[in-house]
């Protein structure tokens, strides 16, 4: 309660490429809402949703998953950055790792460098791997830097000196010379790890999108003066808005991270802790593994750039409800990655789109109800969808229905392949997991994908169409901290490892205390990045002492790659996760009961009309047999023939094959 006695409303917001989703909690019940996104000014959709929910004058705690930083990277937008590095290292970002997307292509198109030579500045301040000064930062260097700043007038400065994670003093000395109002990104703050290229890219990306994100959050904060705003990080924890702008590179997967946090919470409630998740929205699909907790990675990438900061480990493909279908020059059907987006959207939206999309295919096959989209707030144009699929079918010599079936089969194969990447290719058997479906379009594909992977169980959680927004309310405050510490694990010993872990924990404790999280409520999870000596890649293992951690690494290596080696185990990075309490969104328990269908629909490929159920009317314990359609305000679930569903006490749908 506020001083005035008003109930503080909790609002989770997920800004997607097509829709902006809202989940509002007053402590007792949840309200959900969707509006079309406004990519040019994302805050406009948020403010529209706040108005339509009647929350303009209410005190709010708003947790926000944003695509602003992501879109800036993907579209090549952002601030003009001056990149500062050690002498002789100005070309590191341009040279990169010399990886090739197409290994056997003889002629590769030129790739624009992240920073052109005119905006690279080389200076002193270089350290060696032992922390010794190799090239000191002199007063002459600082004065030359002052002159370079005055001549170039950058909007942002990215400072990446060699081995800065050992001693950030030279970077701080340079940062102090940057004029007020210019965004500064320092590598020892952004990513305190070895790898000159990866650390440099992360520091440059942070500088490039930091001003964009800071400006956006400032506009949103000014427009909602009664709201305490925090932002979801890519690793699944939230951070206060006044801190988020300075760590924009940590926000690149903030929306998808929200879905995984909600999936973890709801899977736990449903007794299904081992999940393969797929989040199918209007523009793309994200797939991930939740084995008790969502896995994190420091080997992600966005827009072709490596992003070595911690983020949820997921695989993204361009297959969503708005994915456009087309016939290529060879006469073959293609689906995605191009999307109709929010404007004009699929043909059935009636906003001027003429291309056939996955959503149009579902509508033509009868799996979407034209009068039940967005809870009836938006009517779909079935005629426009049929026209688009007829045009597509003409190019393939197929009817509209056959073309629609082809579109869905191809979209399903794209998603099944992505799910195999994060499971089978990592030594995990999909049959040992439950398929978790969410996103506005996920329920329409869940049965087909489970069958493609040989899975017999699936979970369509309550509020699946806005799960990422719900996840914002289930995310704790937190920080993911790391530092490079290299050497044989046994030789370094427990005392040295725990010294660095304690230093990282102290940093995390201070950051969370500044956001109001009491020390007694903070929780630490230490881990190490390990490898066999001579390897280039690492595996992350929880810290349990030297011997137990080393044995855990051997087991994980054997699971992932099929073998273990009798080699020295080497430590590369030390990591510390510091989080506050996990919020528990209120999910009311359903009363037991049975609700009959609210109608029937003719679905292509099924001889008799199938029952249509309103999910909001279903009672706990109710069982449904496929084929059936289950509609709700923001999504539809297609319960395919041969599948059954049970409603649990929280409203989750537990699907079983056979």
Automatic annotation (TrEMBL):
Domain annotation Hydantoinase A/oxoprolinase: ranges: 199-475
A single BP term in Gene Ontology: glutathione metabolic process
InterPro entries noted in UniProt: Hydant_A_N, Hydantoinase_A, Oxoprolinase-like
Span of domain Hydantoinase/oxoprolinase N-terminal: 11-177
GO terms assigned for molecular function: 5-oxoprolinase (ATP-hydrolyzing) activity
GO cellular component labels: cytosol
One Pfam family named in its UniProt record: Hydant_A_N
Protein's name in the database: N-methylhydantoinase A
Species of provenance: Alkalispirillum mobile
